[in-house]
C-alpha cells in the first residue's frame, strides 16, 4: 500500500513526548520519513539511541533526543527551549507521553492519583504553553496534537486515574483551540482505540482479550501504532489547516460499543 506524503512537513520542527517506545516511537519514524526535523524525549532505556540510529541509517534528518521524565515540568520546558535554540521554534507538538497503569478504586491514594494526572495530563498543557510562546514570539502558525484515549468513552474499569486524565484532554483541547486560534495555532486531539504496542503485549495481551476487542470493533483487525501515526501526520500538516478543536478517533469503531469491555 502507498500512503500520503506531506510536503508541508519537510524540514518542519516536530517535537514528540514519549517518543522512545510504543506509539511515540512510530510517530518519530513517521515524521522523520516525511523529512521533518524531529525532536523527542522518552524514558525507555536505549530507545532514543536506537531510533536515532535507525533514522540515520534510513537517510532521514538526524533526530534530536534527550531523556526526560515529563512529570518534571521545569525539566520538560527547559528541554523544549533547547530544542528551539538548536532547531528553531517547534511548529508541531505531539503530546504523546502517557501510561495506562491498571488500578482499582480501593488501591487509589492521593499520591497515586497525582502521579496518574502528571503522567497523562499535566505535561500536555505545560508543553503547549511553552511551544505556544515560541510560536507567538516568532509569528508562526503551528499544530498541537494531544494524545487522548477512548478508554474514558467506554467506561473502562480499573483505570480511573488514566481515564480521568484522558477525558480532561478532550475539554483542554477545545479550550486551547479557542484561545490559540487567533495566533494561527491549531489544537486537536488524536484518540486511539485498542492499539497493539510492545508494552501491551508484555503486560496484558492474550488471544481471548484480542478477540474481544475485534468482536467489539466495526473493523475486524487489531490496530497497531502505525494506524495512529498516519492520521497524526495529517493533523500536523497544512492539509488539515482548517481543522482545530476536534477529537479524531482512530479506534476501528470500538467507541460505538456502549459496554465496558
Note down, in words, how this protein is organized:
The chain is of the alpha/beta class and 261 residues long. The protein has one domain: 3-Layer(aba) Sandwich (Rossmann fold), CATH 3.40.50.720. The chain contains 8 helices and 9 strands. A 7-stranded parallel beta sheet has the order 3-2-1-4-5-6-9, sandwiched between helices. Strands 7-8 form a two-stranded parallel ribbon. Helix 2 links the parallel strand 2 and strand 3 (64-67). The longest helix is centred in the middle third of the chain and has 29 residues, at 110-138. The model has no long low-confidence stretch (mean pLDDT 93).
How would you concisely characterize the structure shown here?
The protein is α/β, with parallel strands linked by helices. It contains eight helices and nine strands.
